Amino acid sequence: MGSTSGLALRRISGHCTVTAEKIHAWYLLDPQGWSFRPDPVREQLIIDGADAYAQLVKRSLHLRVTTRPYPVSTWAAAHDANAPAPLPAWRDYLMRDQHHLAGRSMADKEVYVGVEIPARKGLYKALGGLAGSLSDREVAALSARIRETDEIMSAPGMDGSPATPRQLEWLLHRSCSLGLPAPLTIGAVDDPHWESEDLGEFTDHVRWTAIPYGRTIRVVGENDTQRIERHVCILSVGRMTDLEIPSGVPWMQRTDQLGFPVEWSGRVEIEDSARVGAAMRRSIQKIRAQKDHYELEHAEPAPGALDRQADKALAVEDEISMGLSGLSTRTRGWFRLAVSAPTEEEALERASAVRKLFAPQITIARPADQYAVAREFIPGERLGSTAYRRRMPVTTLAAAVPAATAKVGDRVGIHLGETSGTSSRVVTWEPWEMTERGEESGLAVLCAGLGGGKSTAGGNIIYRSLLQGVPWTVLDPSGRLTALCRLAELADHARAVDLLDAPAGVLCTYRVIAEPRREHYASELDWRTAQDNAADTRRLLTSSVLRSMLPRQMQDHVLTEVALMRAVGRVRATNTASTMEVVEELAVLDGDPELRRHSGYMADFLREAAKTSHGRLIFPAGYHHDYAHDEPLLTVYSLRGLALPDENTPYSDDLDERLSMCVLYLAAWLTQRGMYFGDVHARKGIFIDEAWALSTFSTGRRFIDRASRDSRKHNTRVLLASQNPSDLLDLGLANLISAAFIGRLTDEGAQQDALRFLPGVREGVGYEAIFGTLSRPSREGRRGAREFVFSDGIGGIERIRMDMSAHPDLLEALSTTADPEKARNRLGRHRTDSLPEAPAAPADDLGEESA
């Protein structure tokens, strides 16, 4: 180590590091998605990576995987700036989330690859460490080779870009301060050139201490205010079995599943095929000589291991000699892992967790000289130990896919939870990203079976965005989400409405279609066109609802549609009209005697239906309700006690069930009106549970078309929830949504249908079974936090676990699981058991009683 900093590194010039012996060009690899990608796509990613490695033959590589923390305070500041009109409880909510996320990982994985630039001139090699200008001139002289390397590293499979000086500075900080918390800030001077005298910035405040043959090294860092100490344990990849390619999880990505950071360092040499072939032929000759020694000289059978070794060597030699592409290239490498903790015992426990993670396919060993192998993590340092050398083809090296990571969500939106698949990291999501910047629809689906957590997931999204000041209109037939209205922080801004007890006409077919507002349209022509479309929708909706009320024989009669079209056409399709006007038109319909008689029967039946409790909500005019009060921030419509037919039954013979379906369907249209009120640019939200009811009406697709088209124009996130994905597919939603949450599904058909909501994921490759593994019960029978496969609409698809533990009041309000300890009879028993015992009678009284 000739430099004053104690490092072999002499100089940094651009994205190149210079030592007395070598120049390495450094590249930062782009993150690669892995989860829910088809096997052919994964295989192509590995083949592309292997091809890039093969083009670097006779060169050495230094592979470094580290992390860059994303401060929770940065997310909180961005999240606060993203809130349009926060409620008074916003500050407390944000503080609770900050404290909660402080113990979670919001770090970004960064993968750096240093590639040796060959053909150094002897004079520059001798003087490179003495004169910085000579090093810079040599780097400039090698510009053609560096550009060639840049092209190789930017190719598919690598997707690397030259590391910036700031990124190299970060890598050196993380390597020299191995195991210490990452600095939140780095040097103030942004200079692409570092002299050897400047490199002390990385080492002066860090001290490494090692006991000979100790189990860890001690790294101590100091700054102006504090002293931090960590124990670092270095592990090495040992023997490996033949790995499946592509595997479920790339072998270098496995450590992302652990709850603590793991650093990787890989020193790799891309070997010359001719040299490897010659070595294999020598090995074959040695094996044959050993077999002859057993069989000819001693007349004993040779061990079977010799035959296996010979077959392996022959296969490698044949692959190298006959291979028509670079995929037959071989490599040798040393792969180290570093785990750290405040105490040595905890560091060794983490090392044990790493061993268990890789067993039994890969052996993880702890090298004896911890200090020497720890220095390998620092760019420019020599190999500390040749032990645990691994030989492998470039395909196995590329199958490590170190840049694979969980890519889902953003760094601005509401906190949903954390990934629970191939890695564990915090997931935040901005629901209005797609309507505001992506120019796509605001439709999203939420599918899960019974107990899958639909209401909880929807309530979590609604609650967090409500505190930002975003208005929501919710249709929850079961009434569970009305609990949000009773939360202290929302009580003054929310209203729960039981539609079954609402005033007459609240679900009038003409009222539930909002009247277009002039200020929402750029021109008079656009506004008039929207008014005509609204009138057409009212006519179709009225005809569809009235027809669905009729008995089966009337619905199927050839004159029913004719009568409805004529009667509906005679009523002016404005929001002030009433459904009863159509019934009156049916009663006086002109035409041939058979049509008059049939329309009269229809009018008589519908008059009787209008007298029912459900009918009074639909038939009278209801426009006057729109002027009764101001809309609160949260409106929750419930339909408790509504008798719905079975989802799989297309028709019910019971009038009450048919009317119930009409009520549910019209309630969905009423809820959709929420997007048309207020500022067209302001964020709004709509949540509709039991969305399967939309597919039972002929105008259900029209509902979806309006929602997909107008949600983008009116900046509205529309969440549609259902137990069966097929119901939503029947509405043509697969190509219209911009986000999806798919929870636990056990039916094979439902699992196949759910895949259609995940872009790029094909059927028949094994992903269907994942839905059955979500939210698995514990040994106690509890499922805990619910899991979903989340598609964020911008290409990210990951398995996530909803997390509301920072807000216990919200979690309790949204919980639909029965708690026997809260039953009234049990509470009464507890009160009885807790009553004090009657005091014992005095002795004199006892004596008198006995006398």
Automatic annotation (TrEMBL):
<feature type="region of interest" description="Disordered">
    <location>
        <begin position="815"/>
        <end position="851"/>
    </location>
</feature>
<protein>
    <submittedName>
        <fullName>AAA domain-containing protein</fullName>
    </submittedName>
</protein>
<dbReference type="InterPro" id="IPR027417">
    <property type="entry name" value="P-loop_NTPase"/>
</dbReference>
<dbReference type="Pfam" id="PF12846">
    <property type="entry name" value="AAA_10"/>
</dbReference>
<feature type="compositionally biased region" description="Basic and acidic residues">
    <location>
        <begin position="819"/>
        <end position="834"/>
    </location>
</feature>
